[in-house]
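Write out this protein's structure.
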Amino acid sequence: MCGSVQRLKPFLPQCLGKLERIIRQPKSMSGRESGSAGVIFALALPALLGLIGGAVDYAAITKDQTRLQSAADATALSIAREMTLGPMTQDRVQALATSYSAANFGATVAAIGTLVENGMAVKVSLQKAAEVPLGILPMLAGVTDVAASATARVNANPSPTKLCVLSLGEKTNGGIFMHNNSVISAPECMLQSNSTVREAMIIQQGSQLTANLACARGGISNSAGVVRTTLLTDCPPINNPLANKPEPSTLGPCLANKLVVKGTERRTLSPGIYCNGVTIEGNAQVTLSPGVFVFRGGPLVVSQNGELLGNGVTLMFSGRKAYFRFLDNSLIRISAPTSGLSAGMLIWESSTFIKGLNSWQNGGCGGNGNDDDDDNGVLGCTTQVVGKILPKKTNEHHINSDRARELTGTIYLRDGLLLVDSRRPVADQSPFTVLVVNKLDLYDGPNLMLNSNYGGAAIPVPPGLGPIGSKNVRLGY
């Protein structure tokens, strides 16, 4: 008959009692006041060895039980955190319980995951064979297995969380990197870094983060930043909600090649494909007619006092060196389409986008500072990170403008870096802005304001980026 570790508590006192009776037994059998010490020892030796062996097994099983309970706690919490991000089924709970427990113990653990309390909690029960070095306890006490259970509950939230920032890079240091004095204001939003590294999210000294929730698969480094939110680590990944979204075509003839609009020129551009770059500078103003604009093989650069205006537009980037730069005092007022294939998509890296060669992904803000064909203007302001001065990388998308105030819609940069270093608020006049990027870097004290007034515009939020549940989980038994 199988036993469990709960039966072990009275085991040692019982063994001591048995040993005492064996030692006293020769006295009652012989009727003499003194007996042979050797005989007594010989009679007591099996019980003594059993007691010592049982103590060794008991210590091993206690350690095994503690480890199993920790695994049950962690598994229940992990599943509950995923419950806050979207609907959960019984089959999904069971699959997660099996996979999480197998990651800790391999296939030796039997795991049962159950939705309880009207779907607002998950119970995890684990059971495995006891690890007994000497095998004494199974013989003496019938203990052959250990078991543990944990229940994690999700606290109901009348205002479901909205996902405003998702960093997709799984091996990126600082998937969300707030350099010194940076500010993110997202009071109704959730921020998530899918990176599994130790510093998946970095909040440096003087930075301020206001959000509904900040979550990272790996760790969160906070160096005396001001945080007005709950920080959670070891969060389940959020799969890219836009991974399978159909894209508009980036093929076809070029409407323009190396287009430059400068001086005081006023131009209206039609949707289509623009090759090898578009530059808007001086006091020029460009108005985009509604539709999809593909920038293929070159950047969109708005600098000096240039203006970029457009409602119902999608900016798509395809090929190498295809990035956007909103610089200097340029005015940016653009909003996404309300219908069609690109509804809700404001800025979009296509599947044909080719990221720059520099290794910004492998460190917070820079690499070795060398320039190359895909890194125009690597040098800029610098930051102090672990005793090193690292240059600001600008080989991908860059918002430096002090007047990038309206960016309504979803910015989707699946492979690229978004660098924000404006000196005035960014996107603060947008009803909502959603960022799904490989990596987000904030420099030089910018204030990235992520509103989530989805009802304030007719522009839809792509599925998977809207309200995704409540934020708090707690462990119970």
